[in-house]
Amino acid sequence: MVEGTCDTNGACRRVWWRCSLSGSIYRTPEGEAEIRALYDEALAGLGVGKESLTVGTRLGDTHVIAIGDEGAPPAVFLPGGNFLNPTCLEWFLPLAERHHVYAPDIVGQPGLSAQMRPSPKGDGHAFWAEDVLDGLGLRTPVPLVGLSYGAGIALRLMGLAPERVSRAALVSPSAIAAGSIPRMLVEVVAPMILYRLRPTRERLLRAAGPLITDSRDPAFGPAVRQLGAVYRHLRLDAGLPRTATEKELKGFGGPVAVFAAEEDLFFPARAVLPRAQEIFCDLALAESLGGCRHVPSKAALERVNERILAFLAGSVGA
């Protein structure tokens, strides 16, 4: 990894971006092409009425999916990391029934945005998110809906520029509290490595099972295939947005809704929800998704979407 820069006197200083020595987040050009094809397939699956936008940021161009009535109130959806934005957005597509939803491909993640990755040690994620809002012309406070890695980015923005965010709904959120690292190594990393060594359908399902609640449901078949491609072809980004503190979020007074999965190995409800009570000034809603892993079940996602729509409308946490 490269992290830093030098001024004209040759003195090095730490900055808020990093990149791989190869210059690409993909292991091979062929792998990049496969993931790009899966991205295009997932984007097409969103149906008609969507628009592709490009906005400039300090970390390079960012591709944004826009969907929903342009006259409806805006909302920004921040997807998970090491995954495909249009698939994450599909899980939250009901939001577009009442909002004009903007869903940016996170820089440094598989998709159509620049490949530079913000450093987890600084506020690069927040600077990038702020640039995206500026590029979209969203100058007044907007609601954020963040999934996993995207929720961590939302938290970074809420800390750095609280005036840009009206309220936030966070699902399976990073940057609040984490689960057991030994369990992650045994239940997530080991099956991933075994799948990489000898990719088979059964090994892929074993690798996906600890992450996706309904991994054997045909409805999640595309997500499982995408996960397999990501495991085989992507230089995985382990640099999650850093954990938020009560001090950082003191300036954000808007309502927050948190949905944490009971069996999430990364960010379990038993760790996330108590800490959410500590760091948010207005925790309007805190729900544990029973029986769910990191990617909630189809039934749980339906309920979460209903609750988020009510929350965004001010029916919860007004």
Label this structure with key terms:
alpha/beta; globular; 8-stranded mixed β-sheet; 35% helix; disordered N terminus
Mind sketching the topology for me?
Blueprint: E1 5-6, E2 12-13, E3 17-18, H1 29-44, E4 50-55, E5 62-67, E6 74-78, H2 85-91, E7 100-104, E8 117-118, H3 124-135, E9 142-147, H4 149-160, E10 165-171, H5 181-197, H6 201-208, H7 221-233, E11 256-261, H8 269-279, E12 283-289, H9 298-312
Parallel strand pairs: 6-7, 6-9, 9-10, 10-11, 11-12
Antiparallel strand pairs: 1-2, 3-8, 4-5, 5-7
Describe the protein's architecture and organization.
With 318 residues, this protein is an alpha/beta fold. The protein contains nine helices and twelve strands. Strands 4-5-7-6-9-10-11-12 form an eight-stranded mixed beta sheet, with helices on both faces. A two-stranded antiparallel ribbon has the order 1-2. The N terminus is likely disordered.
